Structure formats: structure tokens, C-alpha cells
Amino acid sequence: MTQQRDPVPAPAALAPAPAATTRPEEPAPGRHRRRSYRDRLTAPLPGVRAVTRLAREAGALRPGTEARRDVPLLPCAPAPLPPAGPGVLALTWAGHASWILRIGGLTVLTDPVWSHRILGTPPRVTPVGVPWASLPPVDAVVISHNHYDHLDAPTLRRLPRTTPVLVPAGLGRWFRRRRFTRVLELDWWQGREIGGVTFDFVPAHHWSRRGLLDTCRTLWGGWVLTDPQGRKVHFAGDTGYGHWFTEIGRRHPGIDLTLMPIGAYAPRWWLRDVHCDPEEAVAACADLGARRMAPMHWATFLLSAEPVLEPLTRVRAAWARTGRPREDLWDLPVGGSRTL
């Protein structure tokens, strides 16, 4: 039987916001009172039949013994952060979707998860790439959505409550309850500026839920960060493949680097709509018009059934098939750094 998909707003229906401003007809970035974002879903959430199938296929979301045998071979090379002055754009992969991004003189964390384990998953299979004590002062944090492997309360408690946090619409209340005082809550295509760096919130093909009764009560998405020199980094957050990448590239031309998830994709029938596989990640990079890609969302937590090294081997092969320069695939180890 063919599934009926929920309607998705056409790209033209969501007008872009100029950097650090909004269109007059859009709500200003701030507190959002909308009760649901289900109309933003690209595909319907799994129904009873799919959940029943997943329960019947015991172990479908965890790699088997054979698939886990290569855990000791996962690339992990913690090292000191490279120097990064005001004109340098540097990034370091802490693991999963957590990056330390030095841009425009700021230090920005993406979806920071420094915990050894998160709710409902086995513990990390690689250590955090950068010890928390080695971080420079954090100037801003961006959050893609509220799933536990991207919004980690124990890690966020380590931050000063005056740290600016940029979050999807509807998620500001979670931070204000925890006494964060500089919460910037944005809808898709809205932007804000901090210290000369522009933060634009952009769509993703995903969903949100943190408890039993809050499905899609908060929005999800990615971020485009632009430094004063015009260099752009796209952080995809957590996403499946779809039309939004082309639209993001159209509205934000000249992306220098995309941070793109490549893992947690098997079984495909269950995860296709919400997690890119490696080949789709490479296609998304092309759709964005991004010059470079840095893979993420693998080699940290075992969230799905694919063999642990398969995301890396497949993304390298997919990149090679495009004929693009090998040096533009930044396949870093956990703890690795690159400078643009």
C-alpha cells in the first residue's frame, strides 16, 4: 500500500530572511507559541505497522557481532585545537554531530554532546575528540533539534548560563527553564548575528520528540554560519535526503563547507526519510553547491545496524565517483581538525 505523505510547504512559500533580520510579514525571532510543526514533515512518521515490524525484527537498530568487530579500527586521533585567529575558519570534530567551529573570532559548538552515553543508546565507542577542559570560552551554541543525541542536558549544564544559544522554534522554553538568559529561537529562514557572524536557520528532513507527548512540538533544522569575510559553513544537523538542500543552496550560494551526516541509516526501510546514507550525503553536498564536505554522525554512538566502518568506505567511494578533488572530502577522525 502506498503511504500518504503529509503536505510540505513549497519552497517559495517560506520567504528567506535577510542576514540578521526578518521580512516584515514574518514573526520576529523570539518566543514561538505554535503547538505543532507536523506540517513541516517531509514524510509521515512511522505508523503502527512499521513499529510492529521493527519490534518483530529484534536487534534491527543495532549492529550485530560481526558488524561491531571493527570498532577498534574507527578513526580517532584526539589532538590540541589548532590556533585560530579572527580571520581563520577552523573546525574540530568532537564526535557524532558535535563540532568546535572557530569562525569570525568566535568559538561555536554544534549540538554539543560530551556525555559518555545518552538515553536509550549504548555508550560511546570512541572517546570525545576534545576534553571539555581544553575548550576555549564558548561564544555561541547552535542546536539542530531536541533528540537526546543532539540536545544533551548534562553537557549543556557545563556552560555559563549567559552563553548565547540559537535553537529551533519552540525549543527556547527548554533552555529558559534551565536559566539560560540569551536564548535566540528561530524559525526556518530566519537569521541572527553575533559578533559579526551571521547564523541562519535552514530546513532539514527530520522530526522532533523528547518525551511521549511532544512529537513535533518543536522545530528541527540546520544552520548556515557566515563569517565577516563571507565564508559559509552549513551544519546539516540530522536529516534525510530531499528537496531542501537545493533550496538552501539557492538562498545561500557559495557554501564553502557542509558538515553532513553519513551514519545511522540501516535498516533503510525504517530510517530512509530521516537519515542520509553516505551516497545521499554526497548528493546533498552537490545540491547545496558546497565546495567541501566533512562527514559526521558516525563512529561515536552505534544507533543503527550498518557495519561500523561502512559509512566511511561508502562515502569515500561515492565522493570518488563524482570526480571531485579528494582533498575536498574532509573525512576527519574523531578529534581531527582542519583549517579553511
Average of per-residue pLDDT values: 90
Low-confidence stretches: 1-27
Rough shape? globular
Proportion of residues in extended strands: 15-25%
As a percent range, the share of helical residues equals 10-25%
List the secondary-structure elements in sequence, H or E: HEEEEHEHEEEEEHEHHEHE
Radius of gyration (Å): 19 Å
The description of the largest β-sheet is: 7 strands, mixed
Structural classification: alpha/beta
Number of helices: 7
User: N-to-C terminal Cα separation, in Å?
Assistant: 48 Å
Strand order in the sheet with the most strands: 6-5-4-3-2-1-13
Strand tally: 13
What does this structure look like?
The structure is a single chain. The chain is α/β, with parallel strands linked by helices and 340 residues long. The protein is 16% helix and 18% strand. The protein contains 7 helices and 13 strands. Strands 6-5-4-3-2-1-13 form a 7-stranded mixed β-sheet. α4 (244-251) packs parallel to α6 and α6 (278-288) packs across α7 (310-322). The protein starts with 47 loop residues before the first helix and ends with a strand.
Task: Considering the chains and any ligands shown, give keywords for the structure.
340 residues, 7-stranded mixed β-sheet, 7 helices
Structure, briefly:
The protein has 340 residues and is α/β, with parallel strands linked by helices. The protein has seven helices and 13 strands. Strands 6-5-4-3-2-1-13 form a seven-stranded mixed sheet. Strands 7-8-9-10-11-12 form a six-stranded mixed sheet, with helices on one face.
